[in-house]
Amino acid sequence: MKLKDDLTGGRKMLGFVQFISKVAVLIFIGISSSVFGQLSQTDTLKLSRQQYEEFFLKQNLLLLAETYKINQAEAMVLQAKLWPNPSLSIEEINLWTTNKQLSYLDEPLPQIFGNVAQNTQFAVQLEQQIITAGKRKKLMDVERVGVKVAEQEFEELLRNLKYEFRNTLTELQYLQLYTQVFFKQQDLINNLLNAYRRQLENDHISKGEYMRLQTLQLELSREINALSKTKNETEKELKVLLSITGPASLFVLEDDFTPDLHKLKSFDVLTLQQDFLNYRPDVKLAELENEHFKSLLTYEKSQAIPDFSLNASYDRGGGVWPSFFGFGLSIDLPIFNRNQGAIAYAHVGVENTSLLSDDIRLRAQAEFEQYFKDFRTSLLFYESIESEFEMDLDEIFESYTRNFMSRNIGLLQYLDFQEAYLENKKIILESKKELHLQFERLQHTIGKDI
């Protein structure tokens, strides 16, 4: 999926994942239902790389959780938009009066309604803070940068998780294929042992030759055991990324393990080099940190201009007039605190993040140059292996096996070729694996799928 082509594409992906988190039941009915159908029937999940990745994007808990951070950031923009609440205070209430107190009045205080509050003094004040210097708008600008940061943090998490997921998938595929090579060898040696056992019983071969085959079988079993443990560890990591629990095994179909040379050779390095900084979430995050401090500096400067409060008050029986309505204004005098520290903090933050942003861009450029060279090196090595070499290798090994069973070649000659066969099989599989890994590292460096 092309999730990082541009910021718009990234936002579409964010919306897509948010939508997925809200309608998880419907998704579960789709690919998830077929997946778990496989699990219930065979205890083995068999999918292609692309199907596993689609499943990963729908199920990974870290990705789903990260979308809520975007919602939190958007909520802070809403909060910054709100005016402060007015305040209402009621005070100077006398809960009772004495005859002596009443004697001082020229005339009694009337009731407010019914028999309530006769001869009761109280004061009511309503106050509203007025925010000056466009502080609300400036604070909203700060929080909007926070939304962009949350979006890029999602993109960075997605970028890193996809890199980890794809490499783990490649490792599992490699281990499966390499283990199959040893299983085939083990089956072959078992057949040879059965045939040699009959010849040993008829004294046609020495016991030493038979035991040499037994030793080889034991070595193959040891290799299979070690590979199985490594494969189990890799499956565990993949299950965590897929949010799968239970004893089910994972199997990656083999078809897409062989690299597409036409696609891999068609990349234009100059185009990639010119554009890749526009896709790197960590580079964008560094730039947004600088933008955040610039917005914060503007906001902190506005904080040096004091807000003021308007108030309206009513006083009953507390002054010269029995009922008094008044209005007022209050304002802080910026004599001691003119927000100097916060302004200096934001100013230093602008300078600091500007330098860090430049450093990250330089590191990203150096990474791109190195990893593109590594990718080209792996591609050239894989191209150096003739396309028919692996098939020829299998055919020749089958021919050696037939000649060995017909006793046209000796045991030592056969074992030497088998060792060379296993080593070359490993080299071929590792070259494919390495090309996958280098390609994914290049994509991770660029910040988007290519």
Given as residue ranges, the uncertain stretches (5+ residues, pLDDT < 50) are 1-14, 16-41
Mean pLDDT: 85
> Main sheet, how many strands, which sense, barrel?
4 strands, antiparallel
State the distance separating the first and last CA atoms. Answer: 10 Å
Strand content: 5-15%
Protein name: TolC family protein
Keywords: Membrane, Transmembrane, Transmembrane helix
Organism: Gelidibacter maritimus
GO molecular function: efflux transmembrane transporter activity
Structural notes for this entry:
Helix 6 (135-201) runs antiparallel to helix 10 and helix 6 (135-201) packs antiparallel against helix 13 (411-446). The protein has one domain (7-83, 131-304, 339-446): Outer membrane efflux proteins (OEP). By secondary structure, it is α+β, with helices and mostly antiparallel strands. It has helices at 7-22, 24-42, 49-59, 61-81, 99-103, 135-201, 207-242, 261-264, 269-275, 281-303, 340-384, 389-405, 411-446, and strands at 44-47, 87-91, 122-130, 249-252, 308-316, 323-331. The chain is elongated.
